[in-house]
User: Fold these one by one.
Assistant:
Number 1:
Amino acid sequence: MRLTPVIRDLIKFTTPLIVITMTMAAVSGFSLGILSIARAYTTGEGLWTKGQKDAVYFLELYADTGDPGHFRRFKHALAIPLADRTARFALEADPIDIQTARTGLLEGGNHPDDLQGMILLFRYFRWYGHVADAVGHWRATDALLDGLAILGEQIRTSFETGQASPERSARHREELFRLNARLTPLATAFSGSLGMAGRAIARVLIVVNIVVALLLIVLAVLRIRRPLLQRQQFEDELLTEKEAAQTTLAALGEAVVRTDAAGRVEYMNAQAERLLGWSSAHAVGVRLDTIMRLVDPKTGEETDFVDRSLQGEGGLTTALQKLVRPGGPPAIVSVVAAPIMVSDTRSGSVVVLHDRSSEDAYISQLAWQAMHDELTGLPNRRALEEALALVLSDQKRHGHHALIFLDLDQFKIVNDTCGHPAGDQLLRQVTMRLKDSLRSSDCLARFGGDEFAALIAVRTPEGAMEIGERLRQAVEALQFVWEGNSFRVSASVGLVNLDIPGLGVDEAFKAADIACYMAKEHGRNCVELYRPESSQLQAHLSEMASVQSIQRALLEDRFRFHAQEIRCLPAGDGSGFGVELLLRLEGEGGEMMLPGRFIPAAERYGLMPLIDRWVVAHAFEIVARWPGGSEGAAAFFTINLSGATFRESDFIDHVLAEAARTGLDPARVYFEITETAAINDFSVAHAVIQTLRRHGFRFLLDDFGAGMSSFGYLKMLPVDFLKIDGHFVRDMRNEPTDRAIITAIVRMAAALGKQTVAEQVEDMETLALLQELGVGWAQGYAIGRPRPVPMLPPERPGAEPQIRAA
């Protein structure tokens, strides 16, 4: 077959391009293959890590419960890293066992398509760079995985033979934690090394691809240089067509109409056909002012914009016009007109129209959304703020108004029980009830969550209370039903009359919020009016001020310690004396606040864990630098903790970290926890006490005898001291019942191997009675008053902090 010159030229021109394309494809394919192998190893490592962690997790569950199902899951999870290890052993053997390696990798959860590449990478690159590091970390886990398997069998044997016990379970858990603590950093290092290996491979491949691409680009440029020179010869001939095409292409995406010098349509794009209502076939050859009529959007009068554009007056012109369309509604459009100039002669015009209808609608929608709640359609907080500011700016003109806050009481129950769709439906129904209970002139808003607010116009303050009660009743009358579940809903309503002098927007919101809070405090489902003179309101404000003072004190480190001696009596088991570190808050004016002024607010608003962390950190520093072991030195220190802190998941870690940082002897620290806190959350308290006791800390049960269940739980609570509640100690001289209770506590403590401390020992007569009853330790003004402990480090290392006289 004889090739024509055209075909020969085509083959000659395209062959280098084909070769270049195939070369680039080959390099890219090779790069993707290498990256796929790296990804396969990363995926396999993820499965290995997950199997190891799942094995630890299910073995811990098995050790706690003895459920055989957890043991099976443990074995299944452990099989993944063990299978990967088997594959590695097969690849490291001499000779290599490929089939065993493939089987191990498959059992390790790896995809069959990835096996060949994983085997090749391991065989030929396991001695180099980050791959060698990853393999080294992998090998380091072998003994730990064996230890994990052996531990699992030991636990299973203990359950099957009936030898399981709490002590054995505790030992097994300690061993499990030890293995996991060693496995976790190795797994992390394994993962990190693989990640670095993958990134290194990617960088190398990127460089290779860039170099190859540059080489191919150079070859391509050299090859197409001749066609480019030929193209240059045609550029002058195509100049007129190019300018017209560029002008038209620049307007693509909008309605584009091109006319000739006489104003007749030469071209219309599809957008112009839709916007103007004319097809291109019918419009071509028709004057533009015939098919398009523009009027001024403000006056409604027809404009001569089209005529001036067609005549080329003013060059490039723009305007905002209203387009009147036959058979369709008017549309606001932005019009841009430009003449087409060729050799300084106008050969036509291009008119571009941009339909602003959707933009205007979108802007209107955004404006609405900025001021309204999407779920209920009500105005939002911002809209209510603007309305409230307008009312407060001139109350004489706008009349008397009141602001109402409404908070649903059972919303969380509905959300948690039936899910968020149910909660959304409840909010819509509540919105309808509230709107029906208000006038159209009132402004009802939703702030988010289950909070609503209303700005209402009233004639008298009493009328505001009536409307608030009406809203409360409207919510209470709602019987909400969702998927067969029925809920009764109520609302707490707070109200503030806006005739209070000097009331601003923020102050009004705060007052209504406080009134709503007081309604919740009074049992919910009620209406409360903001009264600045209310004692309950003042108490609430005082409590909030205390919260702010606590937060500032934590930031500014203004908590202080006072030390009070705990003396050993003849019946006590010990030497020297103890010291209780009592917390004080130094006010901004330098005054010292006792715990009774700030602890209740801290407990109510969840600040006790933060305070206790401060106490642990600073008390440990004091104990660590206070000498011990010598005659006259403090034998131990007691530190008070709250029950809320015991529920912090990382509190034990915090205590151990601070002990390591300060280097203190844990045997010198006794944590005090009230019996009420211990009994109310017994399982948590028991677990924390057991864990910290294993690290050497001791515990003292404070206010013993104040609770109703302490005697029943005491034998299961591993504390070392019982501090007898001061209520029994203060009046024991005159109350035989108190002496009998103290006697019973002392005998019971002795039977359980625990020591007793009597607090609030105020006089020597009480001290003598306590000695007669066999109390081991005493604390109170008869022993010594609390004295400040300096918070600064001592002047010389190891010096005992000096306690100043109060």
Note: Residues 166-235 form the longest helix (70 residues).
Number 2:
Amino acid sequence: MLFGRDAEKARLDQLLTTGGALVLRGELGIGKTALLDSVEGDVLRVAGHEDEAAMPYAALHLLANRMEGEQASRLFETAEPDPFRAGLATLALLRRAKTVCLIDDAHWLDDQSARALAFAARRLEGTAIVFAALDEGSPRPRPEESPRPGLEGWPRSGVKGLPGSSLGGGPVPRLEGLPELRLGPLSDEAAAQVLDARFGDLARQVRELIVEEAGGNPLALRELSDALTAEQRVGRFLPMELDAEAPAVFVRRIRALASPARRALLVAASDSTGDLDVVLRAAGADLAAVAPAERAGLIRLSGRAIAFVHPLGRAAARREATAAERVEAHLALAESLEGSRATWHRAAAATGPDESVAAELEAAASEAADPVSAYERAAELSEDPGDRTRRLKAAAFAATALGQVRRGTALVDGVARLSADPSMLADVTRMRAVALFEKGSPGEAGRLLIEGAVPVVDSAPEQAAIMALQAVRYGSHAGDTALAQEAAVLLRSLRLPEGSALVPFVSGMAGLADFLAGGPPTSLASLRGLAAADGPAPQRLTAASLALIMGDGVLAERQIEGLEGVYALEVRAHAKLFVGKHAEAAREAAEGLRMAHELGHDRRVAHLKGLSALLAAMEGDEKRCRGLAEEAIAGGVATTASLGHWALGVLELALDRYETAFGHLSAIDHPVVALHAAPDLIEASVRSGAAEAAGPLLERFAQWAEVTARPWASAVTDRCMAMLVTELDARPDSGEELFVQALREHEKDGNLYHHARTHLAYGEWLRRAKRRGEAREQLRSALAAFHELGTRPWADRARAELAATGDPALPPLDVLDLTPQEAQVVRLAAQGLSNREIAARLRLSPRTVGSHLYRAYPKLGVSSRGQLREITQSVGTDD
């Protein structure tokens, strides 16, 4: 299967339909042959051979023989047929064939055949001919280095008149004037797909390493991945020097070099920076020493940089060196460098335990790009068994923190084999629980944590507390209130040291367990302080999650700032949703989903699908929403399934299908998700004629809003109360004061989505009260906000309500030739925002905002900012 070649395949398919000629060009292993392999149907295929490159008309003889038999091939057996007649004969042959002709390895065509085929190709109509040839100067494998054998008995290369040598220095056969399509490197995404299709179990960091090393070359991807051991595939022994069976053409060139050039080449292959000064200094060489390698087409020098022309050239340089030479190269680089880079080279050169290097690696691990590898290599080099176990445990913790569950599990198994210490084994249990959780078994993971905590309750109470705290969280995800309560009981029984930083967490998480078991929202009060607590990255992640429970997206965003990893992406996506940044939330969720897939985090994949379904519901993408929501519900985890039901409920609510929405929203059985979704269920209850069900929901949500102290939650409480009062009280003015109060509260908080929902609900109320002018003002505000958020179905509802007020259905701003960003700026300026405020909202510079307004004025026929409000009120907004 082809990956990342859609455009090239489309070009080829078009050619096969219309007829004509095309020359595919690219470096060795770039995928030219694979593209030819993708051609289906009646195909005639031949390939050039170096053995026959000096034989006039050898390729045409083979082509004619395959097309029309021996009689036709005799046309090209004369010693020197006239080139023009040969071209005409080739053209006639191809026209009669009425088939697709594919010529691979066209760089090995004999000159006469190439000229005749090019002559015919320029005149072809209705028949397609495709050549695949190496770029000029690219290394060309000999026949014995290629899967296509030559013909026995024919002369070998080196015959006088050969159009190009096996080193690729001569001219490419004459296909000038024909349309060309050069195959460039695969994108990183396509390269990753190639590796996934070949090895579905590659660890993410290994995949990234190979993708970077291969440089988008499919052959390099194949060779480098094939050379991995089973342990390397799951991420052990990183950073590693990727080895591979390099094509012999590279080996031959390297072997032809003198010793100084080979040494410099090996040093360059061992250094990842491409810094020419470093390479020359470590190799004890100058530019003259590396010139032969440059002339041989193995390396490219540019300014102060050195790079291998082909990714497999680097692998060949390492493979041709002995173990002693590779060690020497790393030691030389270590002497030429400083800091962590020097440490890594010393670690790569070590052939046995070396405590000094192990200590250096451990010290550098916390700041390393790959801390897991640093700790793991430090463990391998440790002389003392205790140090080895401690460093291996640090590697396992780092892998777990980065979401590398498979790698962490393998490291944990190593720790368990090395130690019988109860505290160490409790840590092992904790990391195994993380793996179970990410694989989609939060309940099982939580019970494992409680079991693992019991042996260290007296000897290490803080360690036991951390495990029990985690068990409460896992019980929450599983919807297993008994598990959460059991963990809370354990937490309350622990005798933590006086002044322990865990004391407030014990209180807060025990309160969460009480809430999950049916306790009032006031049980969550102690989470507010924990959500604002500062600390290292893991503590900030936990704090951000607690902030989300409390509905504080602003605080969650602040806590998660600068943090990376799949968990951080998930939390950040939720936070963006809470503050009404839907487009950003969708991007974070999509990236988190991609990473979770790569890491094999089944639970997180399902959870992010549920969140993405909710965003799709708000955007009005019904098909995507239903597909994602169904997958989330099928995941079987309580939080995830509840997200799926919430998404379907919001979709139906926005589409005015209130009874169906009520059914989906009523199916939410996770207490925290049910709180967050309560406003939607209350609205669905009121609009579907089940207002009596809304009272208890509203009371619980109002209690939570009071505990969270977030203005948006107070505003939504007022909105829901206004809707319920309007439904139950026949007085004309019932509910209006609550709507007004809700809008005042919204001004204190930046949740644009709920602010727009309140504008819409109040506008609907005003229209039904026959106050159309006032209704239009509210509905236009709702419409502008929904448009800015990209929430199409809600925008449609607002537009329909506007039409019902008699508002003329004028064209949207985009019809007036404004770009989407100009339209956004105009709308915000019309609301009275300054350039600086608009810039902050849209993440632009004030100068860019001014430029957008400058261009928008003549399009709208206005000359001042004051006229914008009238313009934007007189037109709708686009979808």
Note: Residues 341 and 398 are 20 Å apart (CA to CA).
Number 3:
Amino acid sequence: MVRSAAVGLLPVWAFLRLDLRCRWRSLAVLSLLVALSCGVVMAATAGARRGGSAVDRLRDSNLAATVLVAPRTPGFDWDRVRRLPGVEAAGTMLLTVDFHLNIEGVGTLDGEDYWYPVGDAELTRTVERAVVLAGRLADPTQVGEAMVTESFAERHHVGVGDTVTARLFTPGETDAFLSGNVLHAASGPRQPLWIVGVVRSPAMNNFTHHSVIMTTVAFTDAYRANLLGASGHRVDFAAVRLTHGEAGLRDFQRRLAQLTGQDDIQFQNLVEEARDAKGITGFERNALLMFALTALVASAVVLGQAAARYATAAAAQLRVLLALGMTRGQATAAAAGGPALAATVGAVVASAAAVAASGAFPIGTAADYEPAPGRHADLAVLAGTAVMAVALVTAAAALGAWSAFVRKRVAAAPPRSMVVDAAYRLGLPVPVLIGAQFALEPGRGRAAAPVRSALIGAVLGVLGVLAALTFHTGVADAAGNPQRFGHTYQIEGWVGFNGADFAPTRQVLDAFTADPDVVAVNDTRVGVATVSGLPVHVFTHQPAVAGRPLPTVTLSGRMPVAPDEIALAPQTVRETGAKVGDTLTFAGTARAPMRLTGVALVPEGGVSYAKGAWTTGDGYRALFPGGSFTYHQIHASLRSGANAKVVSQRISTVLGGQNAAKFGPAGLPREAQQLRNVRGLPLALGVFLALLAVATTGHTLTAAVRRRRHEVAVLRALGLTRRQSRLIPLAQAITLTLTGLLFGVPLGLALGWTMWRAVASSIPVLYVRPVAQLALALVVPATLLIGSLLAALPARRAARISVGEALRAE
């Protein structure tokens, strides 16, 4: 049986060797297409899987804490906490001079930098054991050793082996600060810090990704008076890991309250923060998966068409062998053998390229949580994609060959194209007519070529590229424009909390309105009311100066203008099921019916810009008659070009240093950062689709000259010149590209707009129809130029066709 099978394969191998020798260029192009397609799909899919699991893998690898506990009690006994049931480990860190540390040559670590003074040897060892990216963990017994995060190393251009010098405050300076005085420069002892490791941990990221330097417990003990003041009262907090994780948190809080008799201990749920981080990394993962899926679908279409075209051409030659006794199964295997071999080589190359590119993944926020950055081979993705690609190409080639064998050969001429007929009636030059015919009519017999797939490929190429660039324009516009998220203000401030103002509100408002760069100021009170059992943060839309209201982003309807009107944010609308025009009963400290007039984005002083409500000042007082509030804020909109930081400093100078109002440049919403992290993906997809379209069109033009060389030879025998022969592939390329432009441009724009509208609605963000102006301006000339360049090699081959050899071959 084995011998008979081997004998049956002999004609297959014989044809395959001949096919490889004669058509190796076509197989090389197919192999490159497979390598490009699979490489992109492999890299994106593996990167998505890696990024989506980064937070969990980091927490699993470093004994992550469950909760941060801050009793703010001097001399708190943490050993008693460690003995509580359900507590697996606890490591402490000092609360010191407002987390400031002076590093000579670096400056005061503040704002973007954090200093973590370790309180005991447990931290970084039994809990929050940092993942070492370079070097090692600091020795807790060494005063002069320190660890830093990647962000710190990059910001300050330091690394493992470098030394920085810390300048500490004197005990008196620390006491002065604790008494409320402002400190500017430290005059205490100097301590060299040798950086022994670059590390990463969830607690250091703390969802803010600040750069961090961490000193040892020996440093803390050596400079206790400098850190804590002459009194030496130690106040610290702890990272606690619970045996049952978040499920045991409520029981731990209860036991700790019973143990200490304190009900004001602050808890920071690190598992919940990890979920928030996973929400961001999940968005990035989904974006990469959508990129990979789109690339996979486009690649499947292109590779399937290319393999089918190749096998159909081989089938025309195999018909002779069928007549000599080769079975249809053998002929099908022979026709599909070349594409299968090319796909296998391409898949191997793609796997190597994907592993090489894996060092650039994960992207965005996930990169800050990746515990093992660098190259990584996701064998499941590599093997699965490779097998899928080889199977797809082999199946498409086999199906194309089998269809060619079972299809009856028809002698009648195929139907003519209306475009070709119109060109003939217009009396266009012969090369133009023949080129259009090659592009639009399949031909017949051995010269038949699948033009429909080539036309579809041209349309999909233009459509995909323009849709991707249009979508990219929408993403880039939203990511770089906070107003799309309702941030129509550039400065935000706080003047009150929990019903009490801690700053003279009127004075602050007057200072803002008097500044020449401020165009609108809103006196924003925020209270929590309930509607349909749901808590809603209600914001007042009340300008500090009549006639100069703060601009708002309204998605539908309008803003409220009467005391009994309200506008809800989009997520709140979905949660309540309300519609514009409905009357809802809100309950603050008083109950009041409110008519829903619109859907609008709100400031982020509550939960999210997509959750909350706007009402007028009178409407707010109807819900909160005493004027009570949870937060009292100020939102200021600046003229175009004004610098929010400069304006904030100028207003702060006007108010004087004793004013307790806190204000500064408004931060970006998390969703804007999410879009910034993935805004390069649509552009990369556009480039990928463009490369596929170029390769497909080039392959089509080359195959057309080879398969229809007999027709060109007949025309040459009838008087067609070499120069005219050169123009045939050019005319064919221009016909293909014009067809792609005619249908691809409007469909690409419509698809890009539809995709961005769907994404904008889901985020949510204000939808503004994106227009990729540069792409629209260049799409026609660029497509025609690329088509003309692709026709250069086929044109040269058409001009060099030997008339006698081509006719004898037929």
Note: The radius of gyration is 35 Å.
